[in-house]
C-alpha cells in the first residue's frame, strides 16, 4: 500500500479522496462517489474530510507555488 499523503496532481478540492484512492488501490473517482453516497447517511462525513485535509501531509516534490505559474 502507498503512503497516505495528499497528492499534488489529480486532486479536486483537498486531495483527500485521491489520497485514499491511492492508498487502497482504487480510482479517485470511485472514492469520490463513495464519499458522496456516504453523505446521504447520517454522520460526520464533512468533519472527517476536513480533519483529513488538515492532518494529512501534502506530497513532497513537484512544482512549487512560484514555478506553477
Helix/strand layout:
Elements (H helix, E strand, L loop, with lengths): L15 H9 L3 H11 L6 H11 L14
Helix pairs in contact: 1-2
Describe the structure.
It is built from 3 helices and no strands. 12% of the residues are buried.
Mean pLDDT: 84
Query: What is the structural class?
Result: mainly alpha
Through-space gap between termini: 33 Å
Fraction of helical residues: 40-55%
Low-confidence stretches: none
Rg to the nearest angstrom?
13 Å
Question: What proportion of the residues form beta strands (DSSP E)?
Answer: under 5%
Keywords:
single chain, 69 residues, mainly alpha, 45% helix
Brief account:
This protein is mainly α and 69 residues long.
Amino acid at each position: 500500500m502507498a503512503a497516505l499523503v495528499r497528492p499534488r496532481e489529480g486532486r479536486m478540492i483537498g486531495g483527500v479522496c485521491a489520497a485514499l484512492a491511492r492508498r487502497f488501490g482504487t480510482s479517485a473517482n470511485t472514492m469520490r462517489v463513495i464519499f458522496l453516497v456516504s453523505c446521504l447517511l447520517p454522520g460526520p462525513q464533512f468533519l472527517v474530510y476536513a480533519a483529513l485535509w488538515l492532518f494529512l501531509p501534502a506530497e513532497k516534490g513537484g512544482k512549487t507555488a512560484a514555478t506553477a505559474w
